[in-house]
Design goal:
With 133 residues, this protein is of the alpha+beta class. It has one domain: 60s Ribosomal Protein L30, Chain: A (2-Layer Sandwich), CATH 3.30.1330.40. The protein is built from two helices and six strands; from the N terminus they run βββαβαββ. The strands form two sheets. Strands 3-6-4-5 form a four-stranded mixed sheet, covered by helices on one side. Pfam families: Ribonuc_L-PSP. Belongs to the RutC family.
Amino acid sequence: MGNITRINPPELHKTPGYHHITVAETGRTAYLAGQCPLDKEGNVVEGGLHAQIEAVAANALTALAAVGAKPSDVVRTHIYVVSTDGVSLGDAWAKLNESVIAEAFTTASTLLGVAQLGFSGQLIEVDLTAALP
């Protein structure tokens, strides 16, 4: 696998776990579609945000494995949470960093509060880019 370097320049603010810059010296990249909290039948997982985060993380892990990648191969994340509250966004960030794909969020990451996502009842979606081995 190509080398992945994560950088936090000392001139920029400290981060809660992600890096400002991720450099991937690799030849192949996988762009995963936004991973949604859907079960295998396509139903939105019930049980609130934490249950949906667990489903998104499990789905993302499966998608990464399908291309021979691991969470440590992720070089960019976008996280969309239905919320206008900073505390809720921080809670989602913390829960993702405890999930089976936690290592993916040490890379260049963006966390966004949004008004609505694609499925009725959907509270979170995670978009990942990985440098392939």
